[in-house]
Each structure stands twice: as structure tokens, then as C-alpha cells.
Amino acid sequence: MLVMPWLWAVFTVIAAAAQTARNAMQRSLTERLGTIGATHVRFLYGLPFAIVFLGLVHATVPAPAPSISGTFLAWTLFGALSQIGATALMLAAMRERSFVVTTAYTKTEPVLVALFGVVLLGDHLSLTAWLAILVATSGILLMSWKPGTQQSLRPALLGLVSAALFGMAAVGFRGGIRTLDTPSFVMAATTTLAVGLALQTAVLTAYLAVADRAGLLAILKAWRPSLVAGFLGAFASQFWFLAFALETVAKVRTLALVEVIFAGLVSGAIIKQATSPRDGLAIALIVVGVAILLSFG
Q1: Residue 127 burial by Cβ neighbours in a 10 Å radius (0-12, 13-18, 19+)
Q2: At what angle do helices 258-266 and 99-106 cross, to 10 degrees?
Q3: What is the tens place of the pLDDT at every residue in 267-280?
């Protein structure tokens, strides 16, 4: 299957934009549904859309359905559980810090995901790619840390652990995609998305049914805004997985730092949280790192 070498970058930018909108929607649901409830919205209401995506792929892509192996399920379950934890911690951090700053904390991920990818998947990177990752991540750190002001350790730790779990999730899902025996990267990515969301929905529904039935009922009652968040989540994940199918997780998640820029726009235009000049310098570093990655990485 002929694939343009830059296609992964297009998929990543689309995914980052959709994820920013999804995060803003989930953030608004946190006060209403709680952290776990808002986390579950992403999966429960995203699954139907992922199934629709898979049906469309089967109808339009001339490739047979890949067989599901134990190795595929292990990788995908690893990614699914890591993503549940990452999303919950991200939303918890957003309750204590601004939308854009929390997004920055979670985007300290690229260095971690690069290391995870090398160790677990054998995804080796050039020196230029490592330079791009470090420059862009330095922008994230500059945005996250404000010297001379009182820093709250709790949201920082929540954001950083969330970043590590998001990194592990990306590695798990790419590992699952790579185990599928199909000539179509679109088929592999969409199959992994549908199975991953099914696993996440099953795990969190079972948990809430036992531990918080009232919370589960509240999620079902809030179906209108949750449906929008679910669609945005499934749409973003579809493009993340397409990118993972074509490129290393480290490069994808480094380019994904443009989400911080999108979050800044959402923060100013929708949530009305200020972005300082220091954040402007941080964004410039992110842009430089991304430019290096796209030009020479």
C-alpha cells in the first residue's frame, strides 16, 4: 500500500486538534460527573463511533479482516489500561490548574515515550530526532514551571504521571497495531481502536457498576454532551492510531505538542484563562522543535 511519507504528520495534527476539543469538553463534564465519570465518557460514548469507523473501513478498504491474536490483545490491553489511568489523572490535574498548563504537564511525554519505544518496540531515533524532542520538551517545561511563584506539587505530579501513562498507552497501541497481519495500515489502526475502546468500556463499566452505580447512571443521563465528547475522542483516536501505524510513537507524540498551542487558543477563546509572555516563549521552543523534527528528523 503506497503511503506518502508526510501523511503521519497530517494525521497527528488532525488528532491533536480533535483531542484539544475533546479535553475541553471532558473538563466541563468533570464537575458534573466526577473524574472517573468524565473519563468513562471518552470510552463509553466513543465506542459506537469506533465501530462505525471500523464498518466503513471494512466496506471501503480492499483488505481482509486481520486475525486477533493473544499478543495483539496483550499489547492493546496494556495500552487501554494505561490510557484509562492517564485520562483520569489528567482530568484530576485540570481541576487544580488551568487547562493550558495541565495540557503542558501531560505533554512532557515525548522523552518518556521515546525511551519506552526504544525499549519495548525497538523504535530507534536519529540524533536529530532526539534534538527535536529535547527542544520541544524544554518549551513544555518552561510553560509548566513558573519560578518566583508558589508551585503546587500535586497537579504537577498528576500531570507528569499522566504523561508517563499516555506514553505507555501510545507504545501499547502501536505494539498492537504492528502485530496485526494486514496489508492495510488503516485496517490495522481502526481494528486496534475498536478493540481498545471495547476493553476500556468493559473495564470502567464493570468498575462503576460495582463501586459507583449512581455515577454510572449520571453518565447515562448526561448522554447529550457526553455523545459529543465521545465522538471527538473516537475521532481523535482514529487519527492517532493511523499516525502510530505509520511512524514511531516518539515522532508522533513530539509533533503532538502542537496540542499545547491549540489548548492555548481554546484557553483564551473559550475558557478565558490567561496565557503569559513566558508561555509565548515556550510555544516558540515547541514550534522550533517540531520544525526540526519535520525538516530533519
Answers
A1: exposed
A2: 170
A3: 554 445 555 677 77
